[in-house]
Amino acid sequence: MKKEHAWRYSTLGILLTALAVFVIIQMLRIQLSPEADTLRNQGEIFSGEYKTITPARGQIYDRWGHLLAGNKTVYEAGVDLIDVVDPTTIAFALNAVVGVEYEDVYAAASQDPESGIVYATLARFVTEEQKIRLEELADQMDGAYGEGDGEQVKSLAGLRFTPSLQRSYPEKSLGSNILGFVNWDGEGFFGIEERYDEQLAGEKKLVWISRDPNKVEEQPEIPSGASLILTIDRAVQSEVEKIVDKTIEESGSESATIVVMDPRTGDILAMATSPRLDLNEFWRYGEVFEGATPFNRAVSGTYEPGSVFKVLTMASALDSDTVKPQTPFLDTGAIEIGGIVIRNWDSGAWGPQDMLGCMQHSLNVCLAWVAKQVGANQFYTYMDAFGFGHLTGVDMALEDSGRLKHPGDSDWYEADLGTNAFGQGVAVTPLQMAAAISAMANDGKMMVPRIVLSIIDDGKQYNTSPQVAGMPVSDETAHELTKMLATSLEVESSAALVEGYRVAGKTGTAEIPTPFGYTSNQTNASFVGWGPVDDPRFLVYVWLEKPTTSPWGSVVAAPVFREVVERLVVMMNLPPDDIRKRFLESQ
Amino acid sequence: MNRVNSLTQAYSQAPWRKQLQWIGLFLLILILAALVAGIYLSVTARAATIGRRIQGIYTEMEDIERNIEDLQTQLADLTSKTVMEQRAAELGFQPASSDQMIYVAVQEYQRPDHALLGSTPGIELPDEQILAPEYTQSLFDWLRERVFEPAAPLLVEVNP
């Protein structure tokens, strides 16, 4: 190496060493400076993000696997503020396509990214169609104005879409009173959605997602929420809802409620009432359910049931051996109990009767006498066993327990025994009545009404078991009473009779109390029936609120029962009695 | 003494040879360092690429799961009661009444009581290993297995 060149290498060496020393000093200075923590934190923030992973909400099916509640993709529209070129056009576009307020969007999209805010949410729950429309608009603007700059440029640059899942109800209003709905924030309200909210929603998890590909970690596998299979049969539910709507129109009723149960298991096959809500438009709830209208009258609507309650009064009397079907009773048209005079529905005297006649003619005087013979303590013990004043245990939100006064309660009087005997002065829900009377159709065993048939969790299907709520009466009593009520319908040539099928049942007409007593002409008309009598497969409970064409259950509610059963036997593949018996004999 | 000096002189290396040795050693270290750095960079780059792919696959999985939910709901929309009734009516069908029904007894036929949409709990599928150990074992695992379990065959026959 020539000496004259050595100084150049030395100088270069010194410069490089100085540079290295400078870099090291700068590193140390930054590491030890007061801003070091802030810078470290900023680095942490930008190295990844915390993300809440929300599992897909579990689905709800009918008993045959038809989807009643599922999920669909919706988007959150937002802007990366640093990329926004034209907040005015963004606000116009979102206002026109999504319907959000122009001022709100403009204010959010005009924020200065220098202020530390990098992203702003403009609209939530944007549908797939709206997103596609906005993307098309963005493409058209890009095509028309290109990458140009200036005030004349119209652009949706910066607009971003983040997908998420939102509840969707393919059957719209079908079974809406049973299902309930899920609001924008994913919370379940009413019915199954509220009762099983926790299980359906699953468990959210907050996870750290690193942006550094070298630090990618396995994301925890978050299972979807549990799915439910209901006891409801979509076809039966749909038919019964149609009958509810038709009945309201034809009878001029304020509302109608029909419950269809399998008395052997307590399975609710259909529970239709009014009004109903298209669950995809749940925000119209307040508009559809005005005032204190219950979301589901079958479980939350209490009323005085009237003469259908006589089934239970007679059951308690037969079961306690107080009376027999042939026990005679002389109806004089009036009976005094606890200081009040009870009269028949027609204020007439029906003369000599037996218990079958009392039920057939629905005589208040006779049934009040029967209750008196049973005795207050025993009568209310039976009514407790039938579940009145208690929740039925059905897996639905907002169930009402109704009210049954007992001897010893401050507001119970001896007269209540007489009026309770024919279903006045007692508050019940249609489901309570259906569950209690189902004991007559199931050898005296009362089942807990069941709405959830199976729970599917992590791919495994767990079936629920039918549960016996109790055995308020013996099987002999149940059979005897069923026979009496079947004969009673046949002798009366009731409008409830169904050709080919022997059914048992009872009508009910209850006056509606006002603050001044039973002074209004308005009634609650009901009918309860079950069949086929020798092997009951269904129990149908009908309640019409304030019918205007006729106040009588026998006129407005009994034909509804027949109509329901005529459709039901087809959908349930129940052959007429004679064919069924022939099949059984041949086997 | 002269003899010692002459021997030292005879066996001592020329200064340029020593320099050459030092330079050689330096270059060797440099090449080794470069080699290690190169391998490190290559492995890191591959890991980063795979990391990015994993991130992409996670996003893709989320998209697919949402897509499945969407398709299930769309299918349910298309087969909803109202739509099916409308289609049936358009094809000339009408609801059957009880007197139009014909009942046929089918021996030993058990009509299912409800839908079966999940597996029965209690029947667990065997925990089947999908990937061969070659794809999951590290080099050290393999060595340990070979050292401590010498009886293990080198090749495992895999059924097609």
Describe the structure.
The complex is a heterodimer of chains A (587) and B (160). Chain A is α+β, with helices and mostly antiparallel strands. Chain A has two domains: 57-168, Penicillin-binding protein 2a (Domain 2), CATH 3.90.1310.10; 234-282 and 295-586, Beta-lactamase. In chain A, 37% of the residues lie in helices and 21% in strands. Chain A is built from 21 helices and 22 strands. In chain A, the strands form seven sheets. In chain A, strands 2, 3, 4, 5, 9, 17 and 18 form a seven-stranded mixed β-sheet that branches. In chain A, strands 11-10-22-21-20 form a five-stranded antiparallel β-sheet, sandwiched between helices. In chain A, helix 9 (234-251) packs antiparallel against helix 20 (558-571), helix 12 (310-319) packs parallel to helix 14 (364-374) and helix 12 crosses helix 18 (475-492). The longest helix of chain A has 30 residues, at 3-32. Chain B has 160 residues and is mostly helical. Chain B has four helices and no strands. Chain B has a domain at 14-92. The model of chain B has no long low-confidence stretch (mean pLDDT 83). Classes of the chains: A alpha+beta (587), B mainly alpha (160).
